[in-house]
Amino acid sequence: MRRLLPLALLLLAPPLALAAGKDTVIPDAALATATQLREAGLKDEVALAFTRDLTTQVGPRLAGSEADLKAREWTVARFKALGFDKVWTEPVTFPKWQRRSERAAILAPYPQPLAATALGYSPATPAGGLSAEVVGFDTLEALKNADPASVRGRIVYVGARMHAKRSGEDYGIGSSVRTFGPALASGKGAVAFLLRSAGTDQDRLPHTGVTHFGDDVTPIPAAALAAPDADQVERILAGGKPLKVELQLDCGFDGQYTGANVIGEFTGSKRPDEYYLMGGHLDSWDLGTGAIDDAAGVAIATAAARLIADLPLRPARSIRVVAFANEESGLYGAKAYAEAHRKEIAKIVLGSESDLGADRIYLATASVKPEARAAIAQIAKTLEPLGVAYDASQPGSGGSDLSAIHKVGMAGLSLHQDATRYFDLHHTANDTFDKIDPANLRQNVAVYAVVAYLAAQAQGDFGSRPGAFANDKPRD
User: Fold this and answer.
1) Quick one: which H or E segment has residue 102?
2) How far apart are CA 412 and CA 335, in angstroms?
3) pLDDT band for position 474 (50/70/90)?
4) Beta pairing partners, 224
5) Cα separations (Å) of 392 from 17, 34, 365?
6) How many Cβ atoms are within 10 Å of 88's Cβ, its own excluded?
7) Under 8 Å CB-to-CB from 84, ≥6 apart: which residues?
């Protein structure tokens, strides 16, 4: 369990970055303005409308699909309608993966259908499908230690379980099985791979998500089972009778695709070439409509930027919002942004991304230079009325997409959302607009508006420099 340090001790916390420089200060007048922004954020309607309209008018936004382009065009138009001073796109190229159809069933000993979905980057099964006996493992480690003879020619099933936690930390269990399990099974001679979905619900809705095969690994068909179906598989395996499963997956790659990051910016009043960076990812998986993952994230940053732009006097630095392309299959948009802006990384004063749903932000963590810790403490104090604590002992990359930009030197402030129910919905058909809690969404907007404004108005910087945080190991 993490210990949240009292505010009086925050300045004594060990530094998390070694960049040198003058102390960073938040002016008193800025703190007063931030209090007004905080209250305005709790009344915001922009984020809810943005999320509603994107998920309704575009819907699912699988990277590389027809909806990918539609979502980009929609976002460009919405940014312009909201009055961003500059709106542009930057190209992002990645492999195009498509899902066409999928079916799974138990053939023996008790024939019945299974609720399953192909993992992103899975190849198709042969025409007509494939069937084989299933061998089961409780954990990824058990599969690693398995004799290849016990796996060869079979379908591997791994039943590692996640549990709901506010931090969402158990996702490391499910995502590791999903990401590395199929390649590991292939290396031992398996013909296909199944896993208990990387999720915390008991709905009969499987969770998709990407997997990866290295150049030296033969890709095998890979799919996730809904939790009740995983339970069924485990009961049959425990009974001792041979379990035979059939898979029919029609999916796979169709060349390369060039999408784009969509960028909107409100110009700063004194140092417009420097900016606070925030956003979310525009793509989603195709099973739901991508409301919590991550239309809400883009919406939160957009609404916060709009509130700041409406102030009588803009902050010194600019406010930039990025709707990143293809986060789901490997942070492609984030990596493209990091490469394109690597030489100007010092111009990003600080960065935060929303990509863990839209429930309440409860914790802030940061990776900044030592001389900026006092300023982070000032920001944290302003967030306390919103229920946000500050753990100075933990680093923060800024968020999922921003982790790629943090690696090349951006100072990061991670704003952690309550993930207790996030992995019930994540990557499933249940990720739809009705799951958004409007009050929680507004709390997020208020937090992001306060943080972005205060960082953009700070006197001094937070340590962004090429390579500044190369040794940082952020928890997010």
Assistant:
1) strand 86-108
2) 16
3) low
4) 117, 195
5) 12, 21, 6
6) 13
7) 264, 265, 266, 305, 309, 321
Q: CA geometry: angle at 399 spanning 393 and 403, to 5°?
A: 90
Domains of the chain: 7-85+267-457 (3.40.630.10), 98-252 (3.50.30.30)
What is the number of other CB atoms lying within 10 angstroms of the CB of residue 351?
Answer: 30
In 3D space, the residue among 462, 458, 460, 457 whose CA is nearest the CA of residue 313 turns out to be 457
Quick: pLDDT tens for 123-149.
999 999 999 999 999 999 999 999 999
Contact (Cβ atoms closer than 8 angstroms) between residue 440 and residue 358: yes
pLDDT at 472: 75
Residue 458 is classified by DSSP as -
Do 277 and 322 form a contact (C-beta atoms < 8 A)?
Answer: yes
| Pairing of β 112-114 and β 86-108 | antiparallel
Which pair of tokens denotes residue 298? 């883009």
Question: What are the tokens at 309?
Answer: 């732009």
* Confidence at 3, pLDDT banded by 50, 70, 90: very low
Task: Fill in the amino acid letter for 278.
Answer: M
Q: From 84, 89, 45, select the one nearest 308 (Cα to Cα).
A: 84
Cis bond upstream, residue 27 (ω within 30): no
**Is-contact 168 356, C-beta < 8 A?**
yes
SS3 call for 26: coil
DSSP state, 293?
I
Residue 22 pLDDT class (50, 70, 90 cuts)? confident
Overall average pLDDT of the 236-257 stretch: 98
Is residue 5 over pLDDT 70?
no
The CA distance from 380 to 376, in Å, is: 6
Q: What is the distance between the alpha carbons of residues 124 and 287, in angstroms, rounded to a whole number?
A: 18
